[in-house]
């Protein structure tokens, strides 16, 4: 397992030195490399702009052979994220049959951010939100913004 | 006094070990050194990094889709999902992967790594392919089993020749008890009182290394570099350069240096001369002593120096030298003898070989002739027996006598012949 520890340390170092756009990354606790806290600023130019989302990344013991688990800790109104306190994300990259050991956490985080820029209503977790996104974009944008105002305001 | 295994020695040995390495290591890389745990010196080319473990490749393995992984990583990844971990094409590990090209191995072998014993103070940086050799054979800091048979602890190789060091001693600076093997490390980097401020230069140094500090303390007074020429002034080390510029003896400095060189040369020449003289004297003496030594062997030889002086005044400066020269000639003689011996041995073996070869040839020839003869005899015997069977039943008598006459005193053959007879008869009856 030493090798996987080393890989995680390396990835963490890379992510901290040069974080992906709009993110800050830290360890949930200094002693545990497998739990990362990510703070993601809603990408500008999207209804999520202005929101601050905290995301938890959990790396399984088998990492990099098994995909990391990524959850939104902040509630978010999004077709591909469960609208509950679990915040499960539907991301192709993370599905067991799609996960490749060669993928990196950084790529996962960038994909999550991309998901906010460009939701994927064809493969939704919340069908209602997906329908709304497809058919009634203004209503969707309004709901997103109200969620941002309710849950995702940066703590002052 | 440096320990027998100084780091410099280790360095030299690792370079000489370069030639040995392919024999020692082969493909079964690193049972002792985990190449994945190594610390690499400088940045490693991204192309040499395994996409799975994100470390420089270990036993690089290439797939048919041209992706390279550590052997261990690809096996592990394949166990979970039988596809290429990069492009997810189906992959059969047995047929569709092979060892990466030699050039990749070479590039990886050349990566510089730090000795894994660096936390214990080894600061060697060496090519990855050589690190195992360094650790297993030369590194002073490698932990080896304690030489004491009843002690099951490990100790750095540097100390392993000093016997078991796993007993407690009191640190002279902090009064705590430590194992002797760890004492030096403790005093180097852990002891609370290890630091001492120098009275002269006010910088802090490790107490344990006082001698080293004294040698370089800028405030310590040291003699001028022209002291050998007569300058008696003592100057602080940091002022030495300044003093050298002003020293009255600097004018004669270059001359002095030349003088020193000449003196050294002279000394070397003197030594050489002495050696030659000794040789000459020995040779002279040998010519004289041979008839005397012939009468009775060793004893006269040894007592020679005392006996000969009247005839050959002071042949040697001392008995030691005499013995030394005696020893030298003996050595030369032994050398000559052993070379002759080798020569003789060589000649003998060649001779033996030459002799045995025709003998062997003849032997095989004889053997084949014997076989042919045996075949002939058997055929003849069969022929006779058949003939006799056709003639009548009185034949056993004749065949018996025939067999008897053929192998008189060889019962087994006789019975065989008889049984041959028997075997021959039933169909006839």
TrEMBL record, chain A:
<dbReference type="InterPro" id="IPR000608">
    <property type="entry name" value="UBC"/>
</dbReference>
<keyword id="KW-0067">ATP-binding</keyword>
<feature type="domain" description="UBC core">
    <location>
        <begin position="3"/>
        <end position="153"/>
    </location>
</feature>
<dbReference type="GO" id="GO:0061631">
    <property type="term" value="F:ubiquitin conjugating enzyme activity"/>
</dbReference>
<protein>
    <recommendedName>
        <fullName>E2 ubiquitin-conjugating enzyme</fullName>
        <ecNumber>2.3.2.23</ecNumber>
    </recommendedName>
</protein>
<dbReference type="InterPro" id="IPR016135">
    <property type="entry name" value="UBQ-conjugating_enzyme/RWD"/>
</dbReference>
<dbReference type="Pfam" id="PF00179">
    <property type="entry name" value="UQ_con"/>
</dbReference>
<keyword id="KW-0808">Transferase</keyword>
<dbReference type="InterPro" id="IPR050113">
    <property type="entry name" value="Ub_conjugating_enzyme"/>
</dbReference>
<keyword id="KW-0547">Nucleotide-binding</keyword>
<keyword id="KW-0833">Ubl conjugation pathway</keyword>
<dbReference type="GO" id="GO:0005524">
    <property type="term" value="F:ATP binding"/>
</dbReference>
Automatic annotation (TrEMBL), chain B:
<keyword id="KW-0863">Zinc-finger</keyword>
<feature type="domain" description="RING-type">
    <location>
        <begin position="50"/>
        <end position="88"/>
    </location>
</feature>
<feature type="region of interest" description="Disordered">
    <location>
        <begin position="391"/>
        <end position="429"/>
    </location>
</feature>
<dbReference type="InterPro" id="IPR017907">
    <property type="entry name" value="Znf_RING_CS"/>
</dbReference>
<feature type="compositionally biased region" description="Basic and acidic residues">
    <location>
        <begin position="417"/>
        <end position="429"/>
    </location>
</feature>
<dbReference type="GO" id="GO:0008270">
    <property type="term" value="F:zinc ion binding"/>
</dbReference>
<feature type="domain" description="TRAF-type">
    <location>
        <begin position="186"/>
        <end position="231"/>
    </location>
</feature>
<protein>
    <recommendedName>
        <fullName>RING-type domain-containing protein</fullName>
    </recommendedName>
</protein>
<dbReference type="Pfam" id="PF13923">
    <property type="entry name" value="zf-C3HC4_2"/>
</dbReference>
<dbReference type="InterPro" id="IPR013083">
    <property type="entry name" value="Znf_RING/FYVE/PHD"/>
</dbReference>
<feature type="coiled-coil region">
    <location>
        <begin position="259"/>
        <end position="286"/>
    </location>
</feature>
<dbReference type="InterPro" id="IPR001293">
    <property type="entry name" value="Znf_TRAF"/>
</dbReference>
<keyword id="KW-0862">Zinc</keyword>
<feature type="region of interest" description="Disordered">
    <location>
        <begin position="294"/>
        <end position="314"/>
    </location>
</feature>
<feature type="zinc finger region" description="TRAF-type">
    <location>
        <begin position="186"/>
        <end position="231"/>
    </location>
</feature>
<feature type="domain" description="TRAF-type">
    <location>
        <begin position="113"/>
        <end position="164"/>
    </location>
</feature>
<dbReference type="Pfam" id="PF02176">
    <property type="entry name" value="zf-TRAF"/>
</dbReference>
<dbReference type="InterPro" id="IPR001841">
    <property type="entry name" value="Znf_RING"/>
</dbReference>
<feature type="compositionally biased region" description="Polar residues">
    <location>
        <begin position="392"/>
        <end position="413"/>
    </location>
</feature>
<keyword id="KW-0479">Metal-binding</keyword>
<keyword id="KW-0175">Coiled coil</keyword>
<feature type="zinc finger region" description="TRAF-type">
    <location>
        <begin position="113"/>
        <end position="164"/>
    </location>
</feature>
């Amino acid at each position: 397992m030493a090798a996987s520890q080393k890989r995680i340390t390396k990835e963490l170092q890379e992510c901290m030195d040069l974080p992906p756009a709009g993110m800050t990354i830290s360890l949930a606790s200094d002693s545990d490399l497998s739990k990362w806290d990510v703070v993601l600023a809603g990408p500008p130019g999207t209804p999520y702009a202005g929101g601050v989302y905290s995301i938890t990344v959990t790396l399984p013991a088998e990492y990099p052979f098994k995909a990391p688990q990524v959850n939104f800790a902040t509630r978010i109104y999004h077709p591909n994220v469960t609208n509950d306190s679990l915040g499960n994300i539907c991301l192709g990259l993370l599905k067991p049959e799609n996960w490749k050991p060669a993928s990196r956490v950084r790529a996962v985080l960038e994909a999550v951010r991309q998901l906010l820029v460009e939701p994927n209503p064809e493969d939704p977790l919340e069908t209602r939100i997906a329908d709304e996104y497809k058919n009634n974009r203004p209503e969707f944008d309004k709901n997103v913004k109200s969620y941002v105002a309710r849950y995702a305001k940066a703590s002052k | 006094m440096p320990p027998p295994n100084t780091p410099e020695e280790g360095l030299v040995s690792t370079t000489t070990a370069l030639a040995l390495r392919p024999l020692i290591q082969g493909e079964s890389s690193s049972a002792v050194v985990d190449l994945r745990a190594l610390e690499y010196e400088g940045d490693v080319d991204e192309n040499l990094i395994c996409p799975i473990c994100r470390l420089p490749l270990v036993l690089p393995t290439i797939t048919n889709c041209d992706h390279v992984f550590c052997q261990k990583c690809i096996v592990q990844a394949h166990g979970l999902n039988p596809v290429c971990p990069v492009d997810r094409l189906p992959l059969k590990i047995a047929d569709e992967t092979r060892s990466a090209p030699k050039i990749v191995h070479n590039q990886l072998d050349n990566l510089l790594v730090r000795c894994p014993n660096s936390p214990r103070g080894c600061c060697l940086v060496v090519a990855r392919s050589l690190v195992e050799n360094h650790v297993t054979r030369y590194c002073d800091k490698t932990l080896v089993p304690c030489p004491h048979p009843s002690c099951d602890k490990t100790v750095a190789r540097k100390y392993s020749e000093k016997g078991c060091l796993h007993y407690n001693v009191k640190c002279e600076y902090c009064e705590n008890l430590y194992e002797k093997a760890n004492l030096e490390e403790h005093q180097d980097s852990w002891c609370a009182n290890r630091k001492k401020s120098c009275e002269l230069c006010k910088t802090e140094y490790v107490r344990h290394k006082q001698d080293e500090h004294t040698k370089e303390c800028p405030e310590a007074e040291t003699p001028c570099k022209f002291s050998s020429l007569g300058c008696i002034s003592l100057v602080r080390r940091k002022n030495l350069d300044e003093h050298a510029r002003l020293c009255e003896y600097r004018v004669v400095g270059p001359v002095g240096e030349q003088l020193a060189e000449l003196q050294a040369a002279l000394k070397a020449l003197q030594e050489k001369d002495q050696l030659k003289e000794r040789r000459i004297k020995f040779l002279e003496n040998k010519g004289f002593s041979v008839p005397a030594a012939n009468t009775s062997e060793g004893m006269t030889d040894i007592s020679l120096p005392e006996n000969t002086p009247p005839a050959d005044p002071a042949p040697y400066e001392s008995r030691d030298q005499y013995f030394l020269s005696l020893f030298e000639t003996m050595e030369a003689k032994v050398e000559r003898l052993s070379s002759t011996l080798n020569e003789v041995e060589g000649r003998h073996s060649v001779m033996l070989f030459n002799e045995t070869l025709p003998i062997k040839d003849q032997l095989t020839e004889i053997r084949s002739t014997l076989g042919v003869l045996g075949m002939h005899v058997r055929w003849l015997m069969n022929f006779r027996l058949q003939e006799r069977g056709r003639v009548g039943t009185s034949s056993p008598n004749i065949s018996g006598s025939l067999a008897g006459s053929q192998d008189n005193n060889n019962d087994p053959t006789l019975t065989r012949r008889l049984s041959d007879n028997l075997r021959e008869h039933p169909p006839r009856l």
